[in-house]
């Protein structure tokens, strides 16, 4: 008789969420995380945690956009259940651009129309509206696109809250323990591998869609003289930028997207690009204090969708490929996992009764 029903390896974003939801559903759960309760080695610890299915639509797959929309509602439900305070804003986001980059804005509008069956899901803001809604950007941009449905979280508060919720639901959470599927299997009937990029070797031994890391660099700055009411994104041909206002005048500035698995410190070039673009958007950031720069590797599959891989022979489930949208899509992926696990517990196939979209995330080996 094994001690646990399920052992989860990796307590970054997805592992914590899964530990909470599974423990809440009655699974006797243990979570192994190689780093501390902060999760400082995870991509989630670095992320801006924007919930932006519209702004991301230009780069994201239709599946990711759809999961992103579903997750906007699920996050509201999750946070209400968790109870612990998490900075969560659903005040839309604002896209701005310099006059010479109007063709980029036009392309973005066309893309949004295509992704939403011709429906106009944004509002055009004039420079007066920008000034009224975001006074600190007054006079800097002639036009903006406001995306009303979008939101954001504080990534680190979310990680802490998910951990507290998992523990409260009865999950045993072990930190500083780098586990591997074989030893975890000795403890639990099922193993759930949520190691993100660290699972690369295991994943790539048997996958059609290879896992790789995509380097992302961000900065956190403290700017007591700056206030923004929502995330602001700069459309730019070379230096796209976002500025995410968190609590207490802390802003996350990001992010580079580099085809590299080098997790080393932020480069001078990237710092120059991020801070120059930031200063160009809003010179009031000139006196901001740099709190930290940070790097994360986004776990990315070739098809750029999330994947839930079932290996019934070894009673293992692997989840990966949350790419640059982990916060945006994780709740919808997690609800799919839960449905699958409950199917397994009832002796059915993992994807039994799932809709087509959920089924498209699941592979059976
Ligand atoms: C710069 C940057 C900006 C981003 N911005 C956004 C954003 O605005 N919105 C958004 O939706 N997403 C964003 N993301 C993406 C998001 O962070 C990821 O998609 C998400 O964190 C992936 O979750 P995960 O749980 O799969 O992996 P991770 O969050 O990386 O967690 C993996 C965990 O596994 C642990 N681990 C590894 N090996 C072991 C082992 N052997 N034993 C135990 N534990 C182990 C690691 O320590 C880590 O904690 C961003 C990412 C980056 C890098």
UniProtKB/TrEMBL annotation:
The keyword Phosphoprotein does not apply. InterPro entries: DAO, FAD-dep_OxRdtase, FAD/NAD-bd_sf. Its EC number is 1.4.3.3. Pfam families: DAO. The keyword Flavoprotein applies. Residues 5-337 form the FAD dependent oxidoreductase domain. Keywords: FAD, Flavoprotein, Oxidoreductase. It catalyses: a D-alpha-amino acid + O2 + H2O = a 2-oxocarboxylate + H2O2 + NH4(+). Belongs to the DAMOX/DASOX family. This is D-amino-acid oxidase. It comes from Neisseria lisongii.
């Amino acid at each position: 008789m094994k001690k646990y029903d399920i052992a989860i390896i990796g307590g970054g974003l997805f592992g914590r969420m899964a530990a909470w939801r599974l423990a809440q559903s009655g699974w006797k759960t243990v979570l192994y995380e190689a780093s501390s309760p902060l999760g400082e080695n995870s991509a989630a610890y670095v992320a801006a945690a924007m919930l932006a299915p519209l702004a991301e639509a230009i780069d994201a797959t239709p599946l990711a956009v759809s999961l992103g929309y579903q997750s906007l509602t699920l996050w509201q439900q999750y946070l209400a259940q968790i109870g612990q305070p998490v900075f969560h804003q659903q005040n839309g986001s604002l896209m701005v651009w310099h006059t010479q980059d109007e063709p980029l804005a036009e392309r973005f509008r066309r893309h949004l129309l295509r992704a939403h069956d011709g429906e106009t899901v944004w509002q055009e803001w004039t420079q007066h509206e920008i000034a009224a809604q975001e006074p600190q950007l007054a006079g800097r941009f002639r036009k903006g696109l406001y995306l009303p449905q979008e939101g954001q979280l504080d990534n680190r508060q979310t990680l802490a809250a998910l951990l507290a919720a998992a523990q409260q639901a009865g999950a045993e959470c072990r930190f500083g323990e780098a586990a591997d599927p074989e030893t975890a299997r000795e403890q639990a009937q099922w193993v759930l591998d949520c190691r993100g990029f660290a699972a690369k070797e295991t994943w790539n031994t048997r996958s059609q869609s290879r896992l790789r890391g995509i380097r992302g660099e961000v900065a956190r700055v403290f700017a007591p003289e700056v206030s923004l009411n929502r995330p602001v994104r700069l459309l730019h041909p070379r230096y796209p930028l976002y500025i995410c206002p968190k609590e207490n005048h802390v802003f996350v500035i990001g992010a580079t997207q580099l085809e590299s698995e080098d997790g080393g410190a932020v480069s001078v070039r990237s710092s120059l690009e991020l801070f120059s673009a930031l200063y160009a958007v809003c010179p009031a950031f000139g006196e901001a204090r740099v709190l930290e720069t940070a790097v994360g590797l986004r776990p990315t599959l070739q098809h750029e969708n999330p994947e839930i891989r079932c290996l019934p022979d070894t009673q293992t489930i692997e989840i990966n490929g949350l790419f640059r949208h982990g916060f945006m899509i994780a709740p919808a992926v997690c609800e799919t996992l839960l449905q699958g696990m409950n199917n397994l517990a009832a002796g059915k196939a993992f994807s039994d009764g799932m809709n087509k979209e959920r089924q498209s995330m699941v592979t059976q080996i």
